[in-house]
TrEMBL record, chains A, B:
It holds the Pfam family CpeS. This is Chromophore lyase CpcS/CpeS. Keywords: Lyase. HAMAP family: Chrphore_lyase_CpxS (MF_01459). Covalently attaches a chromophore to Cys residue(s) of phycobiliproteins. One of its GO terms (biological process) is protein-tetrapyrrole linkage. It comes from Hassallia byssoidea VB512170. It is an enzyme of class 4 (lyase). Belongs to the CpcS/CpeS biliprotein lyase family. Its EC number is 4.-.-.-. One of its GO terms (molecular function) is lyase activity.
């Protein structure tokens, strides 16, 4: 699978269930969210706009996605909603690795560029460095309708959080039929 | 890393925090456990005994481990304690893959043989087939003192559960110093 295929398979509506393990406190926190992922073609205006923010020639972008979420966290009462645009800019010598441009993420309030690596095992690894934080996220598909993500967060050189997200495809795509089979068999 | 090195790095005392996502119910369940992993040499009597139960010549075993746990689950009040012996029996043509013999696991009450595969990315994948279930678990080290596990469980052909476990090394090994650094930095 290449990065475009990974984005294509990610497109759609997902129920996303995230559990964060706060390592120092030995506590976990749950978050649930509906997520919509739309694939953006490399020549989409939003892709070009994000490239320009990073002073990158838009013709080097290989694909993009808009991610919109609407969810709740366990430890507060607020609704968490938002959206971000992601754009991949592959390395010239190896399109399986490159830069990941991000409009705005869940945690950050300013644009942050990370890097991506599409593995030979079809897992996508994203690494983002912030001023005082470093995060690595691994995403993969257990099936076309079950996406998994594991991330670790380092602050000041030490691991502070590990998070796990299971994402179940929702809605009426043909592939989604298999998910309701899974759900049904689980309750039988 | 080969399978023996993975077992060696796993030896010690760990605080294990597991969260299971029950996919059909969109609910999660936490479990916390102290785990002790002792490496057993290939010629250890317990390794030989387990091989004999599976009618495998003990000389084909490459290594073994005894895992002892003592923990609690969120959804019941009972103490969960127990122990099991694991033994790896590599394939003759490729020692990175083979059988994983198991005395008794957390879920099963009878001996079950699975398979293991040590990946080029230093992750260990374990696959176990039961009568009506199939499980795949991936284990890897984020650092020598932070072990991670993700497992998926299929029942009757559909995914029913995804679990994530973060394991922090406890106690007085030299490597463990880095863990307390991580914990300290997280709370600062």
């Amino acid at each position: 699978m290449n990065i475009q295929e990974f984005f294509e398979l990610s497109a759609g509506k997902w129920f996303s269930h995230r559990t964060s393990h706060h390592l120092a406190f030995k506590q976990s926190e749950d978050g649930k969210s509906d997520i919509v992922i739309e694939m953006l073609a490399a020549d989409h205006p939003e892709v070009a706009k994000l490239c320009q923010q990073y002073e990158i020639d838009p013709k080097h972008a290989s694909c993009g996605a808009r991610v919109t979420w609407n969810g709740t966290m366990e430890w507060d009462e607020e609704k968490h909603t938002g959206s971000t645009v992601l754009v991949t800019v592959p390395n010239e010598d190896n399109p399986n690795e490159g830069k990941l441009l991000r409009e705005m993420g869940y945690a950050e309030k300013a644009p942050v560029a990370g890097s991506y690596k599409m593995g030979s095992d079809d897992a996508l690894t994203l690494i983002t460095e912030y001023e005082t934080m470093w995060s690595e996220e691994r995403l993969w598909f257990a099936s076309p309708n079950l996406r998994m993500r594991v991330s670790v967060l380092k602050r000041f050189g030490g691991f502070s959080m590990a998070s796990f997200t299971s994402e179940i495809r929702m809605g009426g795509t043909p592939a989604a039929a298999k998910v309701s089979e899974a759900a049904n068999s689980a309750s039988s």
